[in-house]
């Protein structure tokens, strides 16, 4: 497998984003959006398979994770701003559209890009987090999902979340990953989030959540949703309803026994799902 990549820095308005780019410049473009508390490095295990298939990978460190794109106001992390970053990324690379993949919070952003700007999305592969209307329904109606999402209350507390997660050499932040991902990747994620202001920015995504997050209309681009049965944060109720919010070709992939950290833990299975969606689109 090939593993060539470079690190770009692109300016979108007043912010500068770090982007990992891999594959030929004339390859079919695919954008990979990481989740919390990760970084673009989470896609490193998946990228070689995508590049070998002829794709050109663009994996940004998103708003708050890139040192040059770390605004201090909570409202700067609302979903509309995050969607604008992805559209701006496509514009910066001269792309009319691209395939889109997102994990965790990256999946939430990807659902909204697909829903609000479908002309820019060739296909969508969402990992772990289902369509946000399905997730919002589960938060309201499903006791199991309510228990699983109890941690969100902590992350929305300004100052408290950072204190708890970073104390004792980031012991609790590291513990969030369990035994699934490569420890070297976990170290890379933790180093980024240990930078001044980085964890505050990353948790501001949670603090900026509003009702519009769960009021997204059904998406109309070809979509694959990948869910894992051992995910402690995302239960089956919303996962099973996800397809109700896709008005396009849809595939639901279940990875038995996998934890939440699918890109790092099951990169080949995820690459298979992504490449199948790209081929069908």
Kindly name the structural category.
alpha/beta
* Domain count: 1
Q: Please give the radius of gyration in angstroms.
A: 17 Å
Considering the protein shown, what is the CATH homologous superfamily?
Alpha/Beta hydrolase fold, catalytic domain
Distance between the termini: 24 Å
**Helix-strand string:** EEEHEHEHEHHHHHHEHEHH
Strand order of the largest sheet: 1-2-4-3-5-6-7-8
Q: Which stretches are low in confidence, meaning pLDDT under 50 for 5 or more residues running?
A: none
User: If you average the pLDDT, what whole number results?
Assistant: 96
Biggest sheet record: 8 strands, mixed
Beta-strand portion reads 15-25%
Label the overall shape. Answer: globular
Which class in CATH terms? Alpha Beta
């Amino acid at each position: 497998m090939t593993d060539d990549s470079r690190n770009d820095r692109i300016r979108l308005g007043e912010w500068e984003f770090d982007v990992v780019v891999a594959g030929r410049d004339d390859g079919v473009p695919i954008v990979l959006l990481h989740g919390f508390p990760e970084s673009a490095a989470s896609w490193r295990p998946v990228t070689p398979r995508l590049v070998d298939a002829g794709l050109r990978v663009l994996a940004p460190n998103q708003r708050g994770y890139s040192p040059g794109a770390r605004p201090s106001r909570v409202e700067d992390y609302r979903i509309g701003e995050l969607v604008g970053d992805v559209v701006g990324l496509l514009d910066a690379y001269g792309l009319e559209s691209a395939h889109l993949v997102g994990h965790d919070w990256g999946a939430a952003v990807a659902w909204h890009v697909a829903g609000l700007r479908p002309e820019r999305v060739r296909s969508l592969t969402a990992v772990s987090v289902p369509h946000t209307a399905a997730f919002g329904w589960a938060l309201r109606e499903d006791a199991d999902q309510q228990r699983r999402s109890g941690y969100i209350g902590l992350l929305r507390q300004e100052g408290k979340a950072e204190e708890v997660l970073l104390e004792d050499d980031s012991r609790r932040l590291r513990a969030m990953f369990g035994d699934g991902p490569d420890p070297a990747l976990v170290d890379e994620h933790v180093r980024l989030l240990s930078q001044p202001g980085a964890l505050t920015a990353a948790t501001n995504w949670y603090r900026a959540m509003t009702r519009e997050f769960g009021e997204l209309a059904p998406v109309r681009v070809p979509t694959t949703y990948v869910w894992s049965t051992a995910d402690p944060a995302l239960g089956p109720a919303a996962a099973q309803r996800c397809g109700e919010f896709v008005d396009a070709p849809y595939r639901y992939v279940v990875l038995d026994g996998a934890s939440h950290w699918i890109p790092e833990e099951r990169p080949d299975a995820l690459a298979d799902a992504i490449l199948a969606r790209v081929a069908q689109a």
